[in-house]
Amino acid sequence: MGTPRELVRYEQRFRRAGLPLFIEDFSPTHDIFNRAAPLLTLVFLVEMLGATSLKWHWWQNVLGAAAGLIILVGAFGLLNLYRRRPFWSLPTRFGLPELAVFVLLPALLPLVPEKQWHQFLGIAIGNLLLVGAVYVVVGYGLIATLYWSVRRIVGELGNSLASLVRALPLLLVFSLVLFINTEMWQVFAGMPVVFIVLSVLAFTLLSTLFLMVRLPKELDAIEDDVKSDPPLRRVQRLNLSVNLVIRQWVQALVVSTGVGLFFIAFGMLSISADIYSKWGIEPGSWSVSPGLLGHKLLLTASLVKVAIGIANFTGLYYSIALLTDSSYREEFLDNVSTELRDLFTARASYLALRDRLFTE
Hints:
Blueprint lengths: L3 H13 L11 H5 L4 H10 L11 H25 L13 H13 L2 H4 L2 H23 L2 H10 L1 H27 L2 H8 L3 H34 L7 H37 L2 H7 L7 E2 L2 E2 L2 E2 L2 E2 H24 L1 H34 L1
């Protein structure tokens, strides 16, 4: 017949798979912010320091911090009483009143000593961003999805390296041409590290946008294939899309890292100090010259920048190829379909069990 314990096991399975929104009646007040209550409480208590001032004596700051702590704890205690909870209890649900107190009350403390409006805005905006981050990370199961990705990294490494080997014949020709191209070195070697990081973030964002545009069509096909019944709600599809994007990030990261390491190794073997001089390329802020079989290798900051640049292009190509190239697409989506078929079957059993338990 099924028991409530089985229902809990189904819900734990969805959470561990990074799909918490597969749980029916999943609520931000009960299932998201209460899980982050220890973090929110710690931040809330630390912000009592807003009642202090660098211009005060130490004993005044101690008194100010104590007063701030009393105000914060007292305010939440009164809110607990209003909610008909014990004064000293942690909230079992985080509704709008609890979140408003968390965001605004600590921000008011800096106004007491010196009317620091900029600090008020900084704390309020920071707390609001933290609430949003908790909602996204916990609500969409990003931690569980990342944990799943790390746990499966060995398997994904094998799949990604196999895909990399298949991709190399297509990539190697123009990649090697780019690598030994003077203009390529001049562009990346002279680029500040901050710009290198920004270019990596920009390419990651570009590939993510492409995936988010293509995934709805792919999810429709997967749902039809595995006969998902009842169909996923919009928010569940979004949860699943985020889950699949993170999985593809892991594979693309492995592939691009492999390409970057390959070109670093190849550059150490093939690009000597004389070539740097002839090309008019500076080694960069640092360089290392290890020995190998009686020969001097050269590892420089410029070489690392160029390798990262090529790896960046490769990661973008691979992310797009996973959903456009037939061989990559079938391999990736076959693995996904197998897992989703099991999850959708479990979801159907979970919903049937839930209906029976709630109608008894």
